[in-house]
């Protein structure tokens, strides 16, 4: 994950590069190091180095790294000719390389030649069955073809082997959510919370999924995970505070007319606490929206 | 007016409402995005729904309820003072060549139409959007979908249809300019707001 400091550094450097202030190679190196996606800028400035024989040879062996970086950026920008030329140069230099083989497969994929790409990836996997990147390409290809169930199948197979890959679990969860398969998404977030219990993001996502499924039990559980999110962020999660208010209102509605014990589940004081924290935050940071927030919170209370 | 006659209604969308939604989808090119349409039934002609504004909603996990519920409450609350309300839904698919209305879009459209029965869904048409820079496309780059008598969402008009009208005929020209000048970078949605409440989903400075 990219930290705030790294992002600031990256943006400053990007600004400098975009305004002709130099530092292009430093920028390109940072983009690689942080694994961020800035394809348009990488393509523009990377290509200008590659097209300048003096600058290019000054890079020494890094020249090949740049060809690879520009090829990938070009594919992301649909500049397939540029990508093809970069890959051609690399192929000439490293005729037997599997790494270049991956780029060739990627190019087939970018051209939408799904069957050919699939074949290329399969043969690469025969040589190295544990290549995570290629497994993920297969998932991405299924998604690109509008076959989410195939993407799910690939991801599940992948996760049987690479159980500790958080990004893959998260991707799977998000595909499930997009197909409105909330129970399956909840399972993924449970896995993520188990392996990384201190990351508020997963608690929040889990709570959102539980709330979406609905029903008294899920709503009460959702509220617990919103509370955990607030705890883990030191009270700084607007989404979780709003979640507490939504849960309070929904729980009160569901437990209407039940016995007193069930009614206590609504825990109106928790909802009030969250509302106060939200109003404080808006007063400080978004005073123009404070009235809006207050009346929204009020309508949640009245409806409960 | 019966809900069965939604196909007869005309929807007139203002330039700002239209452009804001398209720019939002360009800001998040690799993700599905959505938004709501703000407006009213025309006081002059009850066969026309005037869409005068729009609010960009989300660019991640569109199918989760909590952020959606809270944003719909706040948006209704804001516009009610101006005599306006949520009158429809906008959706842009994740994939370029995906022209289907997905389950999530239909569900949110259904929800909105419970409060405003004439509510349409506008689905971004990527092919038309792409052609914008080359050609003289005058019609909206969105596909109009309405609920038919049997409560199913269906597309109106084969080519986007004349039922969805741009209030200002120049809207596509202005949109093209904004795309060239990368104005989409300035669009803020509710997702951004929930991560940092100083960001305003009303996008007050966008068209200045």
Describe the structure.
The complex is a heterodimer of chains A (304) and B (208). Chain A is an all-alpha fold. Chain A contains 18 helices and no strands. The longest helix of chain A has 18 residues, at 268-285. Chain A is elongated and about 80 Å long. The mean pLDDT of chain A is 94. Chain B is built from six helices and eight strands; from the N terminus they run βαββαβαβαβββαα. Chain B has helices spanning 15-27, 65-80, 103-115, 126-131, 171-180, 190-195; strands spanning 10-13, 33-41, 48-56, 85-92, 121-124, 142-147, 153-155, 164-166. Chain B is globular, with a radius of gyration of 16 Å. At the A-B interface, helix 11, helix 13, helix 15, helix 17 and helix 18 of A face helix 2 and helix 3 of B. Chain A: This is ER membrane protein complex subunit 2. Chain A: Pfam families: TPR_EMC2 (PF22890).
Q: Label the structural class of chain B.
A: alpha/beta
First and last CA, distance of chain B: 38 Å
Question: What is the C-level CATH assignment of chain B?
Answer: Alpha Beta
In DSSP terms (H or I, runs of 4 or more residues), the helix count of chain B works out at 6
Order of helices and strands of chain B: EHEEHEHEHEEEHH
Number of domains of chain B: 1
Give the termini distance of chain A in whole angstroms: 40 Å
CATH H level, superfamily name of chain B = Cytidine Deaminase, domain 2
Membrane topology (chain A): Peripheral membrane protein
Function (chain A): Part of the endoplasmic reticulum membrane protein complex (EMC) that enables the energy-independent insertion into endoplasmic reticulum membranes of newly synthesized membrane proteins.
GO cellular component, one term (chain A): EMC complex
Keywords (chain A): Endoplasmic reticulum, Membrane, Repeat, TPR repeat
